[in-house]
Backbone:
């Protein structure tokens, strides 16, 4: 099933079957883990659904919002939201939202991603209990 | 402090005394107490790093909260997830004002993400800490692969072109908005 996507007079075709399955799987994983799915949904829409990045920036955020809102409500009604922890985390996140973009301007995004990838691999291996990881 | 042991079976409230004083605080749902500045600084540092690399902080924050502070994984997921709601909402509002959201695409994929978001927290109830760590570990390795792939020359080349078009559209959207507000202002004065 192809969905015709219009963006500022340009028209694109998006494969909604892949979008639906991919979006569903990402949403299950991200709401299970408790994080936003941005870094997965953007590649899904650009690489797999074949849409250019400028069409995706806003719409991917809207798609993720559905997941975050539903996931947050579900956790809240399951009684798993610690309000104090939430407030502490939110203060840190909001402050980061002001500081982050200022630092980002001075750094090379490619190298930031490389460093981040190494850190994330380390953390991932540690979570997987791979032996010989300090 | 009042604690009820089981939700289903009614039990007598028990009285406990504790000697926890600020900055050490007790997280009522998580059921542990730590110095509150630890998680606060951790959240700030990780989220700053997240903003810089263009991905939220939850990926790194959640496993660290579990590994360092031993908070229960269900509570970590349930408390960290809502923190991004407001930044997402404001982002959507800003993008929609300049006509940068395709509602058909966003809602089309969003509906399936809504169903996923309904099931994920339910699954979380049945997942043990070890299983949670395993799933998260796999997700992190996939994310790392995605990030590394985004630093390959071919991807950077393609991304640069599309980013340039994006900037062009953003400029146009801004101009269109200014024109509109100007017209609005004039009619208001008239």
Residues:
């Amino acid at each position: 099933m192809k969905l015709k996507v219009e963006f500022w007079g340009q028209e694109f075709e998006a494969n909604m079957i892949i979008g639906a399955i991919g979006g569903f799987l990402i949403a299950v994983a991200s709401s299970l883990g408790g994080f936003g799915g941005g870094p997965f949904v953007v590649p899904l829409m650009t690489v797999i659904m074949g849409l250019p990045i400028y069409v995706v920036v806003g719409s991917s955020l809207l798609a993720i919002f559905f997941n975050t809102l539903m996931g947050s409500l579900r956790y809240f009604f399951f009684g798993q939201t610690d309000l104090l922890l939430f407030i502490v985390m939110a203060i840190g996140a909001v402050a980061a939202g002001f500081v982050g973009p200022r630092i980002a301007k001075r750094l090379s995004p490619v190298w930031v991603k490389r460093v981040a990838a190494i850190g994330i691999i380390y953390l991932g291996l540690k979570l997987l209990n791979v032996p010989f990881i300090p | 402090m009042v604690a009820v042991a089981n939700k289903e079976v009614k039990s007598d409230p028990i009285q406990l005394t504790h000697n926890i004083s600020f900055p050490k605080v007790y997280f009522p749902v998580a059921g542990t107490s730590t110095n509150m500045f630890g998680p606060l600084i951790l959240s700030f540092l990780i989220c700053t790093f997240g903003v810089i690399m263009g991905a939220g902080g939850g990926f790194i924050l959640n496993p660290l909260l579990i590994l360092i502070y031993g908070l229960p994984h269900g509570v970590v997921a349930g408390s960290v997830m809502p923190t991004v709601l407001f930044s997402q909402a404001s982002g959507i509002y800003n993008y929609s004002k300049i006509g940068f959201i395709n509602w058909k695409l966003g809602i089309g994929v969003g509906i399936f993400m809504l169903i996923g978001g309904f099931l994920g927290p339910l699954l979380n109830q049945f997942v043990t800490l070890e299983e949670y760590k395993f799933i998260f570990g796999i997700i992190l390795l996939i994310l790392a692969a995605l990030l590394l792939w985004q630093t390959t020359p071919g991807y950077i080349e393609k991304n640069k072109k599309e980013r340039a078009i994006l900037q062009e559209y953003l400029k146009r959207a801004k101009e269109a908005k200014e024109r509109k507000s100007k017209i609005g202002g004039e009619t208001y004065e008239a």
